[in-house]
Structure formats: C-alpha cells, structure tokens
Amino acid sequence: MIVWHFFRVFIHLLAGLFTCGLLFPFSSPATQEKLIRRWSRKLLAICTVDVVFDDRSQGLHAEPAMIVSNHVSWLDIFVINTLHPCHFVAKSDIRSWPLIGWLCEKAGTIFLARGKQREVRRIYEGLVHQIQAGKRIAFFPEGTTAAQGTVLPFHANLFEAAIEAQVPVQPFVIRYVDMQGEFHPAANFIGDMTFVDSMREILKAPKMRAELIRLPAIPTRDAHRRDIALQARTAAQQALHIAETV
Question: What pathway does this protein act in (predicted)?
C-alpha cells in the first residue's frame, strides 16, 4: 500500500513540474495562486492529511501582511498554501530535495543560506520590495523545525522587513493531530530525518488533521523587530497551550 502512495506522490510531483514549467509562464498571478492552492490540497489529500482552518483573529487579521508561523514539517508550506499561497523564505537545503525543491523554487520560494549575515541582508532588502509590490511573503521565524509541543525562539531579523514595508505581521500556528485530537507523531520532521524518511512516516501512519489557526495581526508601526518576534512567539505558544520552553 505504501508503494502505491509513493507512486501517487511521484505522479503528483510530475504534474506539479508540468504546471510550473508549461502553465505558470503564461498564467496571471491570480491563476498561479489558484493552481498552487489546488495542487497543495491534492498533495495533502494523497498524504491523508485533512486541513481545518480555525480563525481566532477576532476580526484583527490583515492583508497585505507578512505571514509567520511555527514550523513542524515540510507539510507546513502546503498547509498554508491551501489558504494563502505565499512566497516562502526557506532554508537553502530544500532546494536540493528531489523534485519538490525545484517545485518550491518555481513557486517563488526564497532560499536563505543559514549563518550568512550578508545573505540575510540581501534577502531582507528583496522582501521589502516584494511586499511593497503586493506579494504575499511568509517565513518560519524559528529557522528550523521543532517537535510538536515545542516552539523555539523566533529569530527577529526578517521581521524588520515588515516594519520597513509598513505592513502588519500576520501570525498563524499549525498543529497536526490524530483522530483523538492528540499531537500526531508522524508529522515531526526533526534531527537527521530526510524528506524521504518523513514522507514514509506520513504515508504509513493513520490519517492526520492539520489545524491552521489564524491569530490577531500584530501592528509594526513604531515597533522593534525583537518585540514583534517575542509577541508573535508568545501568541503561538498560547494558541498551542505550550509553556515557555527555551
């Protein structure tokens, strides 16, 4: 059965390559978003992941805005894309992943090499221009994935782009649960686990539910990036009922 699921994922990835290579160059931004949303939903369906959207913003959500979220798995990108197709800032390692790295690049992912301050500055300046041009930018401020039940400290550097572009920060949180509402262990993508290892765990595991929770937007006017990062992380911890961890 798992071989069949892997085959379906492979065929779906090929369909994504076809879409990006042949349809994207001739599609409007709105059509591209529709294609990304549809492709992401199909991928998650093949992986037996249901997505449930929970709006806890109390009417205080914002667009345009810079989207941030906690980071559990490679699935996070596609979960967010089912609601808001975004240009993600992601670690450069993803570019080397088979097929999916190329797909992420063609879908507008911005790759960032960790530990290179000059690279951070270059990416930051590009983000400001893209936000001002109306593009929806998202990133995971933890900088890496964390096991469910943990929210790592949020790195503050890229929050400066939202301040300079004069847009709010729109926080989301993602959790993956089983049918009993408990954290689903197959979603964790940590340590030395490879993309293929993670895919295998997900495909052989019982069905999971991805809960995408939108929280109130955080104003950035006259704010400091570290304060915004702390506020976003605290909001994520509270939404996930997680006490201070690090």
Answer: Lipid metabolism
